[in-house]
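To fix ideas, we now present one chain and its tokenised fold:
***
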Amino acid sequence: MTSSAPAHDAPLTSAAFRVVPVSTLDPAQTELAEAWQAVFIDSAIADMGDDHDAWSMDSRKAREQDADWENRYFAALDGTTVIASAELMLPMRDNPHLAMVDVVTRPEHRRRGVGSLLLAHLIREAAETGRTSLLAETTTRPNGTDAGEVFLRKNGFDLGQTLQRNDLDVAAYAGGENPTETPGYIIETSTDDTLDEWLEDRAVLQQRMSTDAPIGNLDISEETWDADRLRRLRDTTRRSNRRAIESVARHVDSGRLVAFSGLQIPANDPSLAYQQDTLVLREHRGHGLGAAVKAANMRALRAEFPQTRTVRTWNAEENGPMIRVNEALGYRTTALQREWQKRLT
């Protein structure tokens, strides 16, 4: 759903700042949107250096058009200068109690209250849509200081889950000898398309991802997936200017897909690829299918994207089996991502 920024046109003000809606799709707001996006990038660089994971402008535009989420963007202005940026993400197909929030402030403007002002605005917007649970995330180096922890705890958030951000040096990839076929299963791979003949089974797998993957103490319910939603996700990936590789495992006896794994590669900078979801149905675990679909993706990546130097993934700390698979492939932890939760009363 396209964010209806003009519908939220009553700025929240303090003595020094005012909050205004932002649209990345409105030509009249191009300058404002670029300044808003620059705050996300500059803040991420200040906290993590060039090794950050801030979304690109292409991805933010695609998210604003996503029919399965309503994404509302806001900027805090000091005069005419954008000094802080925020995003409110509202699931529209499931989890109607949930809202995700992201607030960043330029380093030179931190501790002036602007982040709290923006967060209060997001909380008000979320509450007006009936949301009762907020999620936020922070990223830090291993053994580093989490710049967002004090801010979130001060505003009533509790830690819900910790994930490892794990990176793979493609040149040193240790899985080249891993088989991409296992007895009783066939591995299939596609580039830039979740094949139409996969969609019915892939929807089942994607929905199971929301129930089978570890979620720690987070208040997240089962998602609803079908073929049409997967098609929309495919379109969002394309609008984000990302390429995609996906491999699935087909059970020979039943003919059904029972495992999948995906990669996304930014077209503008393919040096860093992002591992997406990986799932093996519980009833088909123990056959090496997780390693097999990942190995198939890596073979396709090395063949079609020789510029890619690093593959990045995130794994919940409690997800020991997947961490062991990734460690065997050569992944190493480069950061920690923490998921925070606040319940609205």
The chain has eight helices and 13 strands. The longest strand covers residues 158-169. Residues 167-337 form a domain with the Aminopeptidase fold (CATH 3.40.630.30). Confidence is low (pLDDT under 50) at residues 1-11.
